[in-house]
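USER:
Working in pairs, take the chain set out below, taking as long as you need, and write a paragraph about the fold.
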Amino acid sequence: MPLPAIPLIDRESQSWQEQLQKAIRTPLALAAEIGVELKDLPYSLDAQEEFPLLVPHAFAARIKRGDPQDPLLRQVLASRDELVVGQGFGDDPVGEVERSSGDTAVIKKYQGRALLVLTGQCAVNCRYCFRRHYPYEEQRQSTRERDATLNQLLDDDGLKEIILSGGDPLVLPDKSIARIFELVETRRPDITLRIHSRLPIVIPDRISDSFLALVGASKLKLVVVLHANHPQEIDHGVVRAIGALKHHGVLVLNQSVMLAKVNDDSSVLAELNDRLFAAGALPYYIHLLDRVAGAVHFEVEEVRAQKILGELAECRPGYLVPKLARELAGADSKRELPPLYGELNSCG
């Protein structure tokens, strides 16, 4: 499968911020964008009211026109499947609210690491998002409050890594990210700073010249963890963004979620990881679905996921096989699951 073309966006007239502002927000607009009749889509206005639809045009351009079953469309369409109530599914599937430190927007789950929730805003609303019910409004911080939170974290000599998350931390303007870099670099240059973001995938122009200048000037150990689930998501713009990050010394990883009818197939995962590696990103984790309310239709049964991983491991070298993991509420680390090997099915 060839790489999708770069969407026809005039970068001189549409910055990444403008692309985000002009993102698709209704099922009718999404249907028109991809050339499908609204009546042919399993959309739900009730689901959209519960969790708003948000899709940048740069991502929608990679959805196959005329195909209501497209795997990228399935990830972003507010569908009636979200109204199904699943046993064991809830609003806080990995117990983050309980482990967050009140109004400081800090989540501490694992030793030596702290996760800082910088914003509740994303560039795309993924329908399986495990934080779709997270109480972001209770943790909004001013710049001064965020500085105080960071300084408090940096006082901890046992802290080895800060993870910037959200929402999507790269929704913040460069000046806000520069402030975080400056604080960490001044006080604890030994710390690794990890950024979890889907923006370089859904709006690759976010990796702008100004952001790259900021990254290039930093002496911190920087890791960017992308989130791509399907090879169709990797177009020339994404390749360009990953290459630019790599050129500026950033370690680029990718994590995926195993999603039914999206990437629960070893050949799909093999192509995804091949494309990522060719662009300069290493597969990191593939997560079993966090059992968040509204996402029961995306769940892949654990043993089946292990068999898919086994097929992938039989036809790709280890560095192209992500670790299969499940996150459990209250656990001190992710639970990694071994591949299950069987009769080899070709994965391309």
Residues 174-187 form the longest helix (14 residues).
